[in-house]
Amino acid sequence: MVDVLTKAKQEVVQMEAVQAEALKVEVSQAEAVRVEALRIGYGKKKVAEGIHFSLPQGRILAVVGPNGSGKSTLLRTIAGFLPPMGGRIMLNQTPASDMSRAERARFLAVVMTDRPDVDWMRTWDVAASGRYPYTGKLGVLSDLDREIVEDALRRMEVLNLRERYFNELSDGQKQRILLAKSIAQRPKLLILDEPTSFLDLRYTLEFVRAARQLAKEDGMALLLSIHELSIARQLADLVVTLKNGVQDACASPEILTEEYIRNLYGIGDDVMLLRPWICS
Fold first, then answer.
1. I want to staple 189 with a disulfide (CB 3.0 to 4.6 A). Which of 14, 108, 257, 271 is the partner?
2. pTM of the prediction?
């Protein structure tokens, strides 16, 4: 009788493992973002057009290109800060225009290069504001909310700064607090504009580790713009390149060869590229 029960338990465990793996596959195949024939810009000024890509859950997409090519504008448009000038944006397989602000706030989180006006807030409160889409109007945190905020601060290695005021921190520390805030929001899509721009080497590498963990273990989709092509090569599953007002390519990071980089950025043969910039 004991052997029968043991065998039954083993079968249940095996079935749960199979179901868990199937769920991971389903999550990874679900589309976080799809853009089709997207045209972006400010007011009536077009910045780029012909943008089209799909980003599944659990994957990382890096947008690269010269200054002024539209990287930040693209992220702001997908985040809902700017209206698209044409084309279509789908978030979680729903037209972005059909999502309410509350739905969008629960689905995506954003860290842009401009700083929010939170200088006189404690860093704990800045990170905790990531939970506001889930709290009531009074913004009262539950025990679970506090655990999530603490975990996000720990991931970014800034839990020791929780009682400090935001204006007392270095630029790199501020960046990590804002990243923790977005992680605490527990979004399905995390949009990051130049996330490593204020980080030193150690914390850049820590960001790469944390980003991989968010994608692979938490199933989060990450959409980021970045200038460091070596980071794009290490981190991204997919690269979208922008040049001269259009999407130039949508491919794996292996596209970033020396020849392609020179063409994308208009770099002549007389300028030497350091190896970290090139995919070997």
1. 108
2. 0.84
